[in-house]
Amino acid sequence: MTNPVFSNNEAFRDPVQRRGGTKTSPAPTSSPYGQMGTAGAVGADAASLDAMYAAPSATTADTKRLTYDDVIIKTGGLLALLVVVAAATWTLAPQLYIIGAIAGLVLGLVNAFKREPSPLLITLYTVAQGMFLGGLSASYAQFYEGAVPSAIVATIATFAGALLLFKSGKVRVTPKFTKFLLIGMVGYLLFSLTNVVLLMFGALDGWGLRGGTMGIVISLVAVGLAAMSLIMDFDSIKRGVEAGAPAKFAWAAAFGLLVTLIWLYLEFLRLFAILGSSD
Question: What is the residue range of the signal peptide feature (predicted)?
């Protein structure tokens, strides 16, 4: 698993990793019939069983377990908040994007490594990222016409496509899939850090190593990695639901999806900006 939001959370781990070893058999229990010892007690127990079978089945909502509806509602709420804050920042104070970037980084790390999800901290992270994306998008819009709407549409389309592929079963998360994604993300991270260092020390200017044709290719690779990460996120959420994780982890799932979607949007924004600057 590559998204630390899911990989550091036991509720979304692979069942084998969650057990931490081989499965042990439960300790044997004595027979209830041997304990009761009377026909009347056995009859009463049978009546209780009949009542249990006649009762309606408990749903995941009744048992306070994680459901897909919980994840959808909380993800939708966080995205709505993100868009509102981003629009307000773009209109009123785009210069606040620096504060949003720093606060978002700190809160993102804190939330990613918390074992128990904090709705308050996740909401604050969303607000900070809204400030960052709003100010950054406003800056891109000044220099690269059409980059922002194109990035928004591309992000939505990629999310929908990744979800459809995952639900159809045509793309499955296998050990080979995970290994390929992990290697790709490590390589992309090293490339990005090298590019930033070269730009900071004046060895390169403009987009640095990300300019021209090479920059377009690198951005497309990054978009592909982000899309694969989305599929990994879907698989993690599926495991959490099937394992009966507590309902509170819907916040963690929504946060994990938000992190990947923000990354995907930023990569599309950079891609369309590079395309615009090469015209």
Answer: none
